[in-house]
Specification:
The chain is an alpha+beta fold. The chain is 25% helix and 34% strand. The protein has 3 domains: 160 residues, Rossmann fold (3-Layer(aba) Sandwich); 73 residues, no CATH class; 108 residues, OB fold (Dihydrolipoamide Acetyltransferase, E2P) (Beta Barrel), CATH 2.40.50. The chain has 9 helices and 20 strands. The chain has a 6-stranded mixed β-sheet with strand order 6-7-8-3-9-10, sandwiched between helices. The protein has a 5-stranded antiparallel β-sheet with strand order 13-12-11-14-20. Strands 15-19-16-17-18 form a 5-stranded antiparallel β-sheet, with no helix packed on it. A hairpin with a 2-residue loop joins β4 and β5. The protein is globular and about 75 Å long. The two termini are 33 Å apart. The relative contact order is 0.12.
């Protein structure tokens, strides 16, 4: 049995459909990430899970229990808001203790009862230690940095041992260095307390770093879900590929069992990849790792762009008006703009998309 299951969720605003039959499931202990562009319904789904919005059609099952009509305060679900929603007139400890004093989670067995028997101050201390804020209990939340405020909000959300934790853009307000550090720390904290979590983001790198499972939303529906590695390696369609930042997408025609014609030539595709019948048209994705520069041969191209990114170069090749983008590490010098060269494509780096 899935820990969480959403079935045929529909939601509209002002007679305009936003969610159009959303279906997905999450296993116990997983960190799942809802990934999609702005306006795709990600935050609305979180609010439906939290009981803050009602679904027009569909069901939400949590541990086999239908919670679609259960009031928010009885679900055992905690939503950590994007702006953290800390109480400015309370100390760090008082903010963390709020959920323990006013939103107790139902008794779900000996483990929960033992936690409830701890004093609130002990629990607050334990949560602050978990998120790396020992000694912050009496601090004014207004004096904290963005990263410290985020940790206080996380400690407050985890304190009542929620059945399900929801995080809306948890790293969106942080600067780049702090964000990268917390990308490493947040999954570790969530796994330490063994909580099932769903986070929302529009940033694919953040989703891949945080999640065990990514769920991509587009035009009100789930278009693909799975492990980050699987989704990146085999996008379901051209929209998914573009959204994930994969740029090498070309109109293509099948010419034989394992060959396709694209604007810059005929390419071999690995036998493990099934193609439609010869004559079929679609889109070919060339994964950037499959492009290799060579001294001779064909096809040939000209370097049209080169940019340095610290640990790698990003290059663009112009092949008779068709642009291919890829990265090259620093172990070999990157060719300069205007350089004429040949390149090859790994057949296993090609994907056929309808």
């Amino acid at each position: 049995m899935n820990f969480l299951e959403l079935t045929n969720i529909h939601k509209s605003y002002d007679n305009a459909p936003l969610l159009c039959g959303v279906n997905f499931s999450v296993e116990r202990g997983e960190i799942a990430c809802l990934l999609g562009s702005s306006g795709s319904g990600k935050t609305t789904l979180l609010r439906i899970l939290a009981g803050l919005e009602e679904t027009e059609v569909g069901r939400v099952l949590l541990e086999g229990q239908d919670i679609t009509q259960v009031p928010a305060h009885k679900r055992g679900v905690v939503l950590m808001f994007q702006d953290y929603a800390l109480f400015p007139h309370k100390t760090v400890a008082e903010n963390v203790a709020f959920g323990l004093r006013y939103k107790p989670v139902e008794d779900r067995g000996p483990k929960t009862r033992r936690a409830a028997n701890q004093t609130i101050s002990e629990k607050v201390e334990a949560m602050l230690a978990l998120v790396g804020l020992e000694g912050f209990a009496n601090r004014d939340v207004n004096s904290l940095s963005g990263g410290e405020r985020q940790r206080v909000a996380l400690a407050r959300s985890l304190a009542p041992h929620p059945r399900l934790l929801l995080l809306d853009e948890p790293l969106g307000a942080l600067d780049r260095n702090l964000r990268e550090r917390l990308l490493e720390e947040l999954p570790t904290i969530l796994r330490q307390v063994d909580v099932t979590a769903i986070t929302v983001t529009h940033d694919q790198e953040e989703a891949f770093a945080l999640a065990d499972r990514v769920i991509l939303l587009h035009e009100g529906q789930v278009v693909q879900q799975g492990a980050p590695e699987t989704v990146y390696a085999a996008p379901a369609n051209a929209w998914v590929a573009r959204f994930l930042g994969l740029q090498n997408l070309f109109p293509a025609k099948v010419v034989s069992a394992h060959r396709v014609e694209v604007p810059f030539g005929v390419l071999d595709i690995a036998e493990a990849i099934t193609l439609p019948l010869p004559g079929s048209t679609g889109t070919v994705l060339v994964q950037p790792w499959g492009i290799q520069l060579t001294d001779s041969g064909s096809p040939r191209a000209r370097v049209s762009k080169r940019s340095f990114h610290g640990s790698y170069y990003r290059l663009e090749l112009d092949c008779d008006g068709t642009i291919l983008s890829f990265t090259q590490d620093l172990r070999q010098p990157a060719p300069g703009v205007g350089t004429e060269l040949a390149f090859s494509l790994d057949p296993f780096a090609l994907r056929w998309l309808e």
